[in-house]
Design brief:
The structure holds two protein chains of two kinds. By secondary structure, chain A is α+β, with helices and mostly antiparallel strands. Chain A is 51% helix and 14% strand. The chains are: A alpha+beta, B alpha+beta.
């Protein structure tokens, strides 16, 4: 209800023209190309070079790279429909990783190579370190996304950023996968060379690949959750038992409302973090970036929503959703995988919890309103 | 999912300055309030505190000046509300009037009732209660049986209302009742809203003590109460639409996720940062606080822009109650068997654990809210 005086609230979420354009083109591509057949072929071990080529054709890998450096010049909010769509359609390509890798290289003033790029935060998930003097890499990194499919890896260690050729003999690879059969490989670096070195200045992000990787996964999780809500609502309206659609049962309505609410909370947290990321990369954050806090919030909310959402989506679908034939598992296996990657919700909750305890009753509320915990 | 969508909304610099001012005021005013007193929040009824807010111009901030308002932005008002609640200020005396009754009167009776009643609300002197539920009518509001019969110059009202918060202190009650019959296929027809003077002849207010032994809500009996024609709010028969519009205001505010904040704060002071169990549990709650604050603020932005956020507001209330009810359970999990008797944590936990059941009942039960959300998702 509107009172007589109506000052406008500042709308912080209306999509830009560029965002709408990117959303339209990526939706059109994935809706057509990411079919059940493609996902089944992928699960059977056949990656799809053609899908990657299509993604390259419309310029998605360079979405976050400035136009001057050969990219589309989109900020994180503008480019976010790509991440969302990877989740919504469960597109099995190293696109999110390549977008982030390219964005970091370009931000560090380094040249962006052709082809898919993977990401490693030194010291997380293994003991890999980049020697700041010799620029050589030694140690192990586990769960490296799509490493087999990528010639290049971006490694962040402190404020150093290294571009590393994974085809060199000093790098060995052991294949692995997540629950969704996406490549998650173990790499061992035996004093390997880096092909280029840069310095990354992103104030407040101590571990840029770890943080921004978490944001990227939170964003794809929200896309997947929305797909799972849509599938479950469609199924509940179609499936008839006891003479009426099962969606008329209050208990199913309650489950789905709760899943949608948790998804909405994650979506909001992700949108807020995307705005902060845009500002940090544009240099318009003001005196202090809230991004580290916003990302922790987003990954906790997205991870918790994934846990609830996968469970509800399966319960609503009944036995058919547990079959290989049904497409639900393409979504839920990704929910169970991505909630773990780049820090699980428990990991990021611990970070937030330690900050909240340090702030105490005196400082918590101010830290929450400033988003500085 | 589109019907549930909330776009983020950001506060401008003016809002920041106001926040600093409100914090300074509250630091002074609440200096001697213990955590247990702060935990009362929405059920803390302290008319003197309400009048002080009125003196500051912090009641009805967005309303037109002709009614005593300040014509400030909805987001500035939001800042004042969230600061009051986070600090645990006793806001119960004016909350309902400021949140929904004032806007209702301004919108539906701008020339007659609003000029009479609303200036008193902005001064913190006039308190209102809401009469919706009845002894046999809870979630199914269209079934109300209190009725008004036409008489010379007004209406004669008979019936009773229940769970009416603050009716023992309030001057008026906005009452949903039947002025005409239901129609074939439309049970919501024939409902109207009347403003009833609680000092009028035939009104009896009886306390209902809650399970904590405290007196917040009441039963209100109406026996041949005369209500003048001028006290009809809006149009006769339009009561359902008016009440529905009010509920969007009732469901999305910061009071829908901040009710257990004093317990959360008390836990932070007791927690051991080296204990992962403490950090993870309290961190999960911190993340939900952050997300809900943005959602609630986003709905405030939608209201400010004149959009209808009925379904998003419902999501905020449902998710907010989940957070509020999770907090006493975390307190039980982390500190249940080892808190010092009589400590701040103990007192706050005692009160809020036993208050928590009401958080998913008041303002629409969880089941009703989720039915509305399911409708927004396209489940029929």
């Amino acid at each position: 209800m509107n009172t007589a005086i109506n000052h406008l609230g500042v709308d912080d979420g209306t999509p830009s023209e560029l965002q709408t354009m990117i959303a339209d083109s990526v939706e059109r591509l994935f809706a057509k190309e990411v079919t059940r057949e493609l996902l089944e072929r992928f699960d059977a071990g056949h990656g799809d070079d053609e899908l990657w080529q299509r993604v390259v054709d419309i310029g998605l890998p360079g979405a976050l790279v400035a136009e001057a450096a050969g990219g589309s010049g989109a900020n994180w909010l503008d480019a976010s429909p790509v991440l969302h769509a990877i989740g919504y359609w469960q597109a099995p390509v190293p696109l999110a990783e390549t977008m982030l890798g390219a964005a970091l290289l370009a931000h560090a003033g380094m040249e962006v190579p052709e082809g898919p790029i993977t990401l490693i935060q030194a010291g997380r998930l293994g003991d890999l370190r980049l020697d700041p003097d010799s620029h050589r890499l030694a140690g192990r990194a586990i769960n490296v996304p799509w490493a087999r499919s990528c010639r290049w890896a971006v490694v962040a260690d402190g404020d150093h950023l290294a571009l590393v050729d994974l085809r060199q003999s000093a790098v060995t690879l052991a294949a692995g996968s997540n629950f969704a059969d996406e490549e998650r490989d173990t790499l061992v670096f035996g004093n390997a060379d880096s092909q280029a070195i840069g310095r990354l200045q992103l104030a407040g992000l101590q571990e840029p690949v770890w943080h921004l990787g978490a944001l990227m996964r939170a964003c794809t999780l929200v896309g997947t959750l929305e797909a799972a809500v849509d599938k479950a609502v469609l199924y509940a309206n179609e499936r008839t038992q006891f003479g009426k659609p099962i969606g008329k049962q209050q208990v199913l309505q309650q489950y789905l409302a709760q899943m949608a609410g948790a998804t909405g909370a994650a979506r909001m947290a992700v949108q807020v973090a995307l705005r902060s990321a845009s500002e940090l990369f544009d240099g318009t954050s003001g005196e202090r970036s809230t991004l580290a806090f916003d990302i922790a919030v987003a990954k906790v909310c997205a991870g918790e929503a994934a846990t609830l959402g996968a469970s509800v989506a399966h319960q609503v679908h009944g036995a058919i959703g547990f079959t290989h034939e049904h497409t639900l598992h393409f979504a839920t296996r990704r929910l169970w995988s991505w909630r773990d990657e780049f820090g699980s919700d428990a990991h990021w909750a611990k970070v937030l919890g330690q900050a909240a305890i340090a702030a105490g009753s005196e400082g918590f509320w101010a830290g929450l309103t400033d988003r500085s915990l | 999912m589109q019907a549930l969508d909330i776009r983020p909304c950001r506060l401008d610099a003016d809002a920041q300055a106001l926040r600093t001012e409100v914090r300074a005021f509250l630091a002074q005013e609440l200096k001697h309030y213990s955590p247990a007193e702060r935990a009362k929040g929405l059920v803390g009824l302290v008319p003197e505190f309400t009048r002080k807010l009125g003196e500051r111009g912090w009641l009805g901030m967005t309303w037109p000046k002709r009614y005593g308002g300040q014509e400030r932005s909805a987001l500035e008002r939001y800042v004042v509300l969230e600061e009051l609640l986070a600090a645990g200020a006793p806001v119960g005396a004016h909350w309902v009037a400021e949140r929904q009754s004032g806007p209702l009167l301004i919108k539906f009776s701008p020339e007659v009732l609003a000029p009479q009643i609303v200036p008193g609300i902005t001064r913190g002197e006039t308190l209102l209660a809401i009469g919706m539920s009845e002894p046999d009518v809870g979630s199914d509001l269209a079934a109300v049986r209190t009725r008004a019969e036409k008489t010379e110059g007004g209406w004669i009202v008979n019936g009773s209302k229940v769970w009416t918060s603050g009716a023992h202190l309030a001057h008026y009650m906005i009452t949903l009742l039947r002025t005409g019959p239901k129609e074939e296929g439309n049970r919501r027809a024939g409902l109207s809203q009347l403003l009833i003077d609680l000092k009028a002849k035939g009104v009896t207010v009886r306390p209902i003590y809650n399970m904590l032994g405290e007196h917040d809500f009441n039963e209100v009996f109406l026996e041949n109460v005369f209500v003048p024609d001028d006290f009809v709010i809006g149009e006769l028969g339009n009561g359902w639409q008016q009440v529905t519009a009010e509920l969007a205001l009732e469901r999305s505010g910061p009071e829908r996720y901040l009710s257990c904040t004093q317990l959360y704060l008390a836990m932070l002071d007791e927690a051991d940062p080296q204990d992962s169990r403490h950090a993870v549990s309290l961190g999960r709650l911190a993340a939900r606080y952050a997300a809900l604050r943005q959602m609630s603020l986003g709905v405030a932005g939608m209201l400010a822009r004149g959009e209808n956020p009925a379904i998003p507001a419902t999501v905020v209330k449902d998710q907010g109650a989940l957070l509020e009810q999770a907090i006493p359970e975390v307190a039980h999990d982390l500190f249940g068997d080892q808190r010092e008797p009589g400590s701040d944590l103990d007192q706050v936990m005692r009160f809020l654990t036993q208050s928590a059941p009401s958080f998913s009942l008041r303002g629409g039960t969880r089941e009703i809210l989720r039915g509305i959300i399911a409708g927004g998702l396209g489940l029929r």
